Amino acid sequence: MTANTRIEIRGADEFRFDEILTPDALAFVARLHDQFAHRRQERLHDRMARRIAVENGRDFRFLPETASIRRDDQWKVAGAGPGLEDRRVEITGPVDRESAVQALNSGAKAWGADLEDATSPTWSNIIGGQLTLFDAVRRELDYVDDDGETHRLHSGELPTIVMRPRGWHLVEKHLKFTDRAGQRQAASASLVDFGLYVFHNAQKLIDSGKGPYFYLPKLEDHLEARLWDDIFTFTENALGLQHGTIRATVLIETISAAFEMEEILYELRDHCAGLNAGRWDYLFSFIKSYRERGRQFVFPDRTRVTMTVPFMRSYTELLVATCHKRGAYAIGGMSAFIPDAGKPELTQESLARISEDKRREVRDGFDGTWVANPALILTARAEFDHELGTRPNQIDLLRSDVNVTAEQLLDVRSLDKTVTDAGVRSNVSVALRYIESWLRGVGAVELENIVADASAAEISRAQLWQWIHYAVVTEEGTRLTVSSVNAELEAQVSAAERFDGDQFDRAADIVRLVALEDDFPTYLTIPAYAHYLVDELVAVAA
User: Fold this and answer.
1) d(CA 522, CA 208)
2) CA nearest 393: which of 362, 435, 418, 347?
C-alpha cells in the first residue's frame, strides 16, 4: 500500500515511474475514485440496460425528456481555450517518445495524445506515456533512434496537446483502489489517466499559455458527459484552477451519442471545446448495437462504407450543425493512409482521395480534421487553408439547411450490401495482425498502408461475427460460417512470418473469442486485457 493513499501499486517499478506515481498524485487519484467510482459503475450499468433494450427491438431516438434543451437557442459552450483557436489539422497517435516527438515537430495545430485506441495498455506504456507527456509539457522530450541519434523538440511553436484518456469501460489492473468500506477493486482507467496527467501538468500548461485539454472517448449518452463535467469541476476546485480551465472535445463514436450530441454539449458547456466525428468506432458501435436485429442491418465490406453513404452523411452533417449552433468546433474524421515512396501510384491515388475527403469536410463546415501520419498534414491543410484562409474556424456557418431525422441516422437500407472473399480475408488479417501487435505492446501499427488502431480491429471482428451470424454468401459464392472463417484464420497464422516473441497464436485465440463465438464481447480489449495483458502482474512492496 502506497503511503497516505488507498492506491496499491501492482506494476513493476521502472525507470522514473516514481516521478509520476508520487504519493500526492496517487492521493489525488484516490480522491477521484472516492467521488466518482460509484457513478462510473452506474453509467456502465445503464449502458448494459440500453444495449439489451436495443437488442430487444427498441431503436435509438432523440430524447423527448431533453427536448427543451434542444429548443433553447440561448445557451452556448465555452468553446476554444487558449491554444485551441485554430484546429484545422490535428495529428493523433500513441504516446511513446518517438511518436510524440514526431507529432510535436510535425507542424500540426494540435496533437491528440492517445492513451486509448492507439496505445496497448501495458503498465510500461501507460506510465511511460505519462512520462512522455510530462516531459513534452516541459519541452524536455527527446528520444534516441536505432542509429544512436538523439531527436528533440524544435524551438518553435508546438501543437497544443489534447490528451485522450481510456474510456469508462476499461480498468487499470496494475493499480488497486480500496474504497472507504474497505473493498478493493481495479482502478478506473479513465480516472487514472486523467488524474495523473492533470495533477502533474495542469499548471504547467496554463503557465505556457495553453491549458489541460482532453478528448473524451466512447461516450454513450449525456449522463456520461455530466459525469465528466462534474469531474472537471471537482478537479478545478481541488487544484485551485479557475472554473472552465479544463476543456474537452467529445468523440462522437457511438451510435447512441449521435442522438444526444446537443445534450452532451449542454452537460459539458462550461468545459466544452467541440465534437469530433470518429468514423471506425462509430461504424463498430452501429454494428454492435444492431448486430442481431435482422439482415437489413448487415454491413458490406468495410471499404464500401464511405463517409458519403447517406447515413454517414446524416451523422456528420448533424454533428457540424449541432456544434455551430452552440459555438463548438466540429472536427472531422481520421485519414490514416501511410505514403510509400515504393508505391508512387498508390500514394498518388490515396493522397487524391484524402484531398477529396478533406475538401468535403471543410465545405460541409468542419473546422478541422485528423491525420495519423505527418506526411498527410500538408495535403489536409491545403484544403482547409483554401476554404478558411486566415480565419481560425467557420463556426459562423450555421448549416440551418440541415434537418436530420432518427430514421436517416439509422438508414442502412441504401448501402451496397456486397461482401467479398477479399473483404473477409482483410478483416481476418486486420483483426489478427492488430491484436498480435497489441499483445506485444504496440497499439498503432501499419496494416494495408494505413495506421491501424483498436477501432480497425473492432470493426473487422464485428463484421466477421455479423456475417457468420447471418450466413452471408460472398460475391464469389462462399457461405460464411464459423468453420470457413476459422479456416481462413488458421491459414493466415500458418502463412505469417514468425519471429521470437510473436503473439500470433494468442491473437488467433482472441479473434476466435471475440468473432467466432455466440457471445459478442462489447469490446475486444476487455477480455484481451484481462486474460493476456496483465497475467504477468508484479507485486511491488509498499
Assistant:
1) 40
2) 362
Q: How far apart are CA 535 and CA 524, in angstroms?
A: 17
Cell numbers 510524440 correspond to 100
Amino acid at 511: V
- Residue recorded with cell 431503436: 59
Give strand pairing partners of 177.
7, 185
Find the distance separating the first CA and the last CA of the chain, reported in whole Å: 5
For residue 396, indicate whether it is catalytic: no
Q: For 376-392, what is the mean pLDDT?
A: 97
SS3 for 214?
strand
Catalytic residue check, 164: yes
- If phi > 0 it is left, if psi is from -120 to 50 it is alpha, else beta; for residue 299 that is beta
DSSP state of 58: P
The Cα–Cα gap between 447 and 449 comes to 5
Cell of 322: 449541432
Give the integer Cα–Cα distance in Å for 361 and 334.
11
Name the active-site residue from 193, 281, 364, 453. 453
Contact 346, 67 (CB under 8 A): no
Phi, psi dihedral angles at 150 (to 5 degrees):
-90, 130
Catalytic-role residue among 40, 164, 326, 433: 164
Inter-residue contact 304 to 389 (CB < 8 Å): no
* 196 within 8 A of 42, measured Cβ to Cβ: no
Q: How far is CA 470 from CA 101, 458, 466, 479, in A?
A: 46, 19, 6, 10
pLDDT of residue 218: 98
Residue 2, pLDDT above cutoff 50 = no
Q: How far apart are CA 159 and CA 187, in angstroms?
A: 31
Q: What's this model's pTM, rounded to 2 decimal places?
A: 0.96
What pLDDT is attached to residue 541?
A: 36
The beta strand positions in 382-516, using DSSP E, are 445-447, 450-452
80 and 249 Cβ atoms separated by less than 8 Å: no
Read off the DSSP letter of residue 76: -
d(CA 429, CA 447): 9
What is the average pLDDT score of the chain? 95
Q: Please calculate the CA angle 77-193-227 and round it to the nearest 5 degrees.
A: 40
Nearest to 249 by CA among 275, 270, 269: 275
Q: Which three cell numbers stand for residue 2?
A: 502506497
Burial class (CB in 10 A: 0-12, 13-18, 19+), 370: buried
